[in-house]
Amino acid sequence: MAHVLVHADKVAAAKAVSAVIRDLIVAKAKAGQTAVLGLATGSTPLPLYAELIRLHREEGLSFRNVVTFNLDEYEGLAGDHDQSYRYFMEQNLFRSLDIPKGNTHVPAGTACDHARTCADYETAIRNAGGIDLQVLGIGRTGHIGFNEPPSARDSRTRHVHLDEVTRRDNSVFFGDLARVPHGALTMGVGTIMDCRRVELLAFGAGKAEIVRRSLRSAPSADCPASWLQEHPACTFHLDPEANSRL
Ligand code: GLP
User: Fold this and answer.
1) Which atom of ligand 1 is nearest the CA belonging to 137?
2) How far is CA 162 from CA 33, 148, 151, 185, 242, in A?
3) Which residues contact 224 (CB under 8 A, 6 or more apart)?
4) Residue 72 CB less than 6 A away from ligand 1
5) Most CB atoms within 10 A, among 109, 126, 156, 246?
6) pLDDT, tens digit, 9 for 90 and up, residues 183-227
7) Average pLDDT of 7-26?
8) Which residue among 71, 72, 73, 138 is best mutated to probe the pocket of ligand 1, counting the most ligand atoms within 8 A of its Cβ?
9) In sequence order, what are the residues at sequence separation of 6 or more whose Cβ sits closer than 8 angstroms to the Cβ of residue 102?
């Protein structure tokens, strides 16, 4: 069963999750090991990334021994496209930390051979020792990463078609629905379930209904986030609005 923590607001939630990440990085560094983080995009993790940058700048937290794997990337967008998730991560996190660029991984949206690219991504995660902690947001369709319904419990990193609800939700960033890609590469539900720990963040009334379905309906492919009920170490970090229907 997933744990639920209701925080005063999204800044408080970001502080709580950043403290968990800091403790992981520090513990791994002490043991001479690398911390492997799974990262997410969207507006939800932005306060978390701001807090990680503050911990780096003001409290000397180093990311030199951190390796990251992002959940997903839009099909066809190169890393310098201002709506690509690689660009998002550079702007909102990586460029403000001391993490070596080679330690950061985002699926290659422009690769021609999707199957090969996705298999290589799984191999890279395995070779890094697996993901210690995965940060997640949630889409209104119940997607985690870009695992739209239906997404099987054992799905792996793959090419997916985006739900029209998701394309419309994300069109605000592109300025025009027609510019939103129809596909993406995403870690699978199974890839996410293999992460040793999962911290999902959801804020605002717009997420209340999907948070309720994710935690209260029987786990099924129709609501991919509902599979997280079966994860042994998953916490939903909510603000009071996102918690309002539980
Ligand atoms: C995108 C991402 C998801 C993210 C979702 C929610 O579709 N692929 O990983 O969780 O958006 O976005 P937001 O946090 O802006 O609500």
Assistant:
1) 10
2) 37, 7, 12, 10, 24
3) 142, 143, 144, 147, 148, 149, 150, 151, 189
4) yes
5) 109
6) 999 999 999 999 999 999 999 999 999 999 999 999 999 999 999
7) 98
8) 138
9) none
Q: Give the C-alpha separation, 195 to 133, whole Å.
A: 6
Q: 230: closest CA among 186, 195, 183?
A: 195
Q: What is the DSSP string of 8-76?
A: SSHHHHHHHHHHHHHHHHHHHHHTT--EEEEE--SSTTHHHHHHHHHHHHHH----TTEEEEESEEETT
Do β-strands 183-186 and 72-74 pair in parallel, antiparallel, or remain unpaired? antiparallel
Cα–Cα distances (Å) from 205 to 34, 140, 215, in that order, read: 37, 11, 16
Cα-to-centroid distance, 128 and ligand 1 (Å): 25
**Residue whose pair of structure tokens reads 């996102």 in the numeric block:** 242
**Which has more confidence, 186 or 1?**
186
Question: Which phi and psi (to 5°) does residue 198 adopt?
Answer: -130, 130
Contact at 8 Å (CB) between 188 and 157?
yes
Largest CA distance in the chain: 49
Alpha-carbon span 48 to 153, nearest angstrom? 27
Residue 182 one-letter amino acid: H
Ligand 1 atom at minimal distance to the Cα of residue 162? 7
Q: How far is the CA of 138 from the centre of ligand 1 (A)?
A: 6
The sheet carrying 183-186 orders its strands as 72-74, 183-186, 158-161
Using one digit for the tens of pLDDT, what is the confidence trace for 81-129? 999 999 999 999 999 999 999 999 999 999 999 999 999 999 999 999 9
- Say yes or no: CB of residue 44 within 6 Å of ligand 1: yes
